[in-house]
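USER:
Working in pairs, take the chain set out below, taking as long as you need, and write a paragraph about the fold.
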Amino acid sequence: MRQPGSTIFPGAGTVAQDAARPMPGPRRPTSLDEVIDLLLRQGLGERALFGPAEPGEDRDPDAARRAARRAYREMARLAHPDVAPAGRRPEAARAFARLTELWEAHQRAAASAPARGAAGGGPGRPRPGGPRRGGP
């Protein structure tokens, strides 16, 4: 059972509550109404919905990718116009289109983000066949 004043998903509390806690990963709405609220009324962006696209020191990139994909798929199932009640299909279609735009933007940002350690000067992986030695 939820505590009084608790929220269904992070970031839906008061400004003071949200400022007091770090923003976690992807949002997890549980109904068409929540998806519509996040996408069309609140106008949240891809980072708020799917989490950061760039790798972080404290996050496993594969786990972050899986969590983002899971969040997208859950919202897509809820907002897909084919499963929405007949009277809600136009609104669901708008939410689904916006969700798709944001997911594509998130994927582009993830693809263009530097790989973990690329900018930090880490040793990286060794070359196949060992290091290159002088000579042509």
Notes: The helical segments are 15-20, 32-41, 46-50, 61-79, 89-112.
